[in-house]
Structures are given as C-alpha cells and as structure tokens.
Amino acid sequence: MILIVDDDLAIRTSLALLLKKEGFSVRGAASPEDTIEILQRETPELILLDLNFSIETSGDEGMDLLQRIKKINAAIPVILITGWGTIDLAVKGMKEGARDFITKPWQNDYLLQSVKTILNLSKQIPQSANRRKLEQTYHFENIVGDDPKLLEILETIGRISATDAPVLVTGESGTGKELIAEAIHTNSKRKSKPFVKVNLGGISSTLFESELFGHVKGAFTDAKADRIGRFEMAHQGTIFLDEIGELDFSNQVKLLRVLQERTFEPLGSSKSIKVDVRIICATNRNLEEMVADGSFREDLFYRINLITVKLPALRERAGDIPVLAEFFVNNLKIIYQRPELKLSHQALKWLKTLTLQGNIRQLKNIVERTVLLSVDDMLDVEDFKKNINENSLSSAKSVLPEVGTLTLEEMEYQMIIRAMEFHQHKISKVARSLGITRFALYRRLEKFGISYESES
C-alpha cells in the first residue's frame, strides 16, 4: 500500500488515480493526525508526503511529520512533494531521511519511475558476491578482478541496473568509472538504446547549453545549422555525465531543472523537448565537501545520488593487478599481432608492488609501453624497469635526470608531475607554466594516468 499525505483532495485524488492505474493499492491522509493514525495500524510500502499544508506554507508542519514518520518506522521510504520555489525544503527533508523529492507540477512518468525504483530497491536483499554467480546473471565482461571490494560493487550495480535510479559513481582518476557506467547501462532495460557519454570537464561554460540541449540555426554567430544536444541523443537510453564536479554554479541550475522536469529548450528555441533518460554521473572530487564550501548545489547533489557507488583505488585491491596486467597483455597480443606475449611470474609479483597513483589507466599505460619497447615476448621485471623510469611510478623527484636517461615522453610526464606538485594541482596555473591549454593538460593527465582534481 502507498500512502498519499496531502491536505488537498484534488492532489490526493489525482495521485491515487495515477497509482491505481499502475496496479498499486493506495490510501490517503489529509493531515498529520490522519497519517499517524494510519501508521499505528498499517505499514505502507511507501509514503508520498507533501511538505506544504494550506494552513502552514513554511513547510514546518510537513518536516515535523516526516520526523514523526521516521521515529515510528525509519524503514518506510518517503518521497517528498514540493514546489520548485521551495526545493530547499526537499533538500532539508533528504537530510532527515527522505529517499527522493518531486516538484510540482510533477511529471507523471517521472513520479512513477521514482516510486517503482524506490520500491524495487527496498525489496531487493543483497546476496554474498561471487564472481561466477554474478557472471551467470549479469554482463560484466569488461570489468576485470576478483577482489571482494570489486565483487561487492558488481553485486550492487547488478541490482540497481534494473531500476531507473540515478547513480553517482565516485573514485580516483583511472579507477574505471566509465566502465561501471557502461555496465549499469548494459544490464538495464535500456541496453538497446543509446549510451551517451559527456565529459563535463571538457566543455566550456559558454558551450554547455549548446552541447547538452542543442541549438537552432542562428541561435548564435556560428550556429549555421540546427544541432541535436546530448540529452536528446540519449532519449530512452542513458546519459553519462562524467566529471560532474567540474560544472560551474550557473550551469548546475540548468542541469538540475532538466533532471527534475525531464524537459528542456534548445538554445534559441522556445519549443520544449521532453526526454526519457537515465542519469549516471561520475566524479573524482568530494561533492559533499564542495556542497559544504558552496561550490556545488546541494539540491543537485541529492538529485543525482539516489545510489552512490564508490570505486576503490587500485592500491586498495592490489591482488587484482596481476589479473589486470594479463588482461591487457592478452588484448595487446591481438592488437600488435604478437600471439606469444606473456608475463613472467616475477613480473606479475613486481607489478603488484607498485603504488600506481594513476590506477588502472596507469597500469594499462605501463604494460602497453613495455610491450611496444620490448623485443622478447616473455616480459620480465627488467623489461618494465628498463622501459619505465621508476621515478614516474610514484612522485617526481626534485632533480631531473641527466640528458639521455629519459625519452621525451618520460620527460613530459615528469615535468607535468613536478608542475602539479609546485602549483598544488591548480590546473590553470599548471597549464600556464607548461605553456599549454587546460584542455591539452587534461588530455595529457588522462594519457599518463595522473590523478588530479580540477579547480572549481
């Protein structure tokens, strides 16, 4: 049974008709007193709670009722309903334990999606993770490893894939956030529809609307033809918003409205476009700290993280390093037509001792570089040591090596590391000191698997 709490009979009736049409059993409550009386006799599967009662427009009565509900039974999921102008109330409610919030006027499809997703998640009981069992149920072919931390994550994303829940994937650079997002999409009911990737760190603030929402011809000087935005491309599929922490404050508001209302207007157009998309976001930044310091909107944070998946650094699952290295070598056998390529037992043990600040991406770079520069098909410890300067495996040393001891690529790597340390990872300052653009620096950081936190 779903309990609808609202003092407005028209709203209760409208929501009841919508939910009954979908096969749900529904009860209504017009006041906090009615709600408490029902809860003393029954346990709803979910509560839809309007925060604003006609006798009290501040939302205090609704917030007080939410707290009373949580004291009676904290396990009952609650979805809040509020006006866009009082969305701050919903954010406060999320801190008090609500699972999601809907703004008026609501979109029927989105409201039903939220209800079904939360009911689905609350019914599912996590099972002990086992790689073989997981692979019998889900498709995780591109995610390599057997570490318990990884298996727990795979079990989680397997369960949530069937829902339309927004997911926030966090973790250091190079830990495989995009692979996780792809796995969620591949195991979802949207798998036959588009999976659209957007690197928000690579889109300038002025191009944000055009890139994500599209534009019409003549919308600005260089708009010589209509352009479809990424959200429209992802219709009925999944949109993956990588580096969500890099989005500036003004564009955070625009994104929030689209995530909330599922409608937008292309730049230069007054025509609204409605989209059905699942949202997966990723970041290597600490969004909670950004919320605290005011650089990331709290309402957007709660909108994107109904489910949070935190990926461990590779050093936290070092046992997977040999498995990953062999996986990369097996792929490189085909790419470089060297079917006899192998890693020695000693090389696998040595690789396992590396800290690898750039995580999986850095390991892949190290393996591929060694394959390219080694004549023998049996790769040993010396092959890696000969081709990879050990200073580059941790932090750069204060003194550069003698001319001729490093390749130009290795020198570039070390210079970037030194500049990052000197300028305390301030991307703009690092880029200026190296004489390149911020986006050129980002490409090099990705290429070398160097961890970084872009400036806000």
The CATH superfamily of the largest domain is identified as P-loop containing nucleotide triphosphate hydrolases
**Helix content bin:** 40-55%
How many angstroms separate the termini?
Answer: 45 Å
- Structural category: alpha/beta
* Poorly predicted spans: 394-400
Q: In CATH, what is the class of the largest domain?
A: Alpha Beta
How many beta strands in the DSSP annotation? 16
**Radius of gyration over C-alpha positions, nearest whole angstrom:** 25 Å
Strand order of the largest sheet: 2-1-3-4-5
Keywords: ATP-binding, DNA-binding, Nucleotide-binding, Phosphoprotein, Transcription, Transcription regulation
InterPro entries: AAA+_ATPase, AAA_lid_NorR, CheY-like_superfamily, Homeodomain-like_sf, HTH_Fis, P-loop_NTPase, Sig_transdc_resp-reg_receiver, Sigma_54_int
Pfam families: AAA_lid_14 (PF25601), HTH_8 (PF02954), Response_reg (PF00072), Sigma54_activat (PF00158)
Modified residues (4-aspartylphosphate): 50
What does this structure look like?
By secondary structure, this protein is of the alpha/beta class. Helix content is 45%, strand content 13%. It contains 20 helices and 16 strands. A five-stranded parallel β-sheet has the order 2-1-3-4-5, sandwiched between helices. The protein has a five-stranded parallel β-sheet with strand order 7-10-13-6-14. Strands 8-9 form a two-stranded antiparallel ribbon. Helix 7 (148-161) crosses helix 8 (177-186) and helix 14 crosses helix 15 (345-352). Residues 394-400 have low confidence and may be disordered. The modification 4-aspartylphosphate is found at residue 50. Pfam families: AAA_lid_14, HTH_8, Response_reg, Sigma54_activat. This is DNA-binding transcriptional response regulator, NtrC family, contains REC, AAA-type ATPase, and a Fis-type DNA-binding domains.
